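We treat protein structure as text, and this decision shapes the records that our systems exchange. We quote a single record here, exactly as it is kept in our systems:
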Amino acid sequence: MTKIIMHGCNGAMGQTISKIVKEDQDAEIVAGIDIVDNRDNGYPVFTSIKDCNVDADVIIDFCSAKAMDTLLDFCEEKKMPVVVCTTGLSDEQLSRIKKLSETCAVLKSANMSLGINTLFKLVQDAAKVLATSGYDVEIVEKHHNQKLDAPSGTALALADAINESMNGQYEYIYDRSQRREKRDKKELGISAVRGGTIVGEHEVIFAGIDEVIEFKHTAYSKAVFAKGSVAAAKFLKGKKVGMFDMRDVIADAQ
């Protein structure tokens, strides 16, 4: 049994994870953290993680960037493994997470979906063939109108995966409205759409002469991210130190 603290338990993802864990015989949420405590979750909820005194194996974090520093302080003090799912983090926070992994087990992923993490590998392989042959690369991501960060962490992770396979030659371009010039071959465009209740859609476009190849992932429910985060928590249980991602979870399950 994996005992989980849900950081951001009363948010949309926290509630989705809570429902999934209730049906999972191998996992249990033993405590929740949220500044809003306005419902009965079936487990104790603390408005500050500093007050949480419940024994657990791992924390799942789906909160906000402004709550990250306090979470990292807690994990550092308790040597508590943590699955970091929050996006829109600052460079300083990302550095702290990397530093934390030297003394504590950390799994960080911009997207917990099995499909998206498979897509990372596919676009890397495609870039080695298509981008090296002169195809332009663009990424378009779409999310609901309540999402705070743009572009999404997943879009940036896709861009990084492609750029890694191309030895870091690309410059990321987020806005061409002020650029009165033709597209440079070293550009990798990233466009963000925000509207309605779109759960998440990411499209990678390789545009060449007389043909276009597209890779697309669409999430129809937050459940795909929730299931992945629970699988990640089970994977992280018992691990003492190190930085992991969803590729490690996938490899462990094979």
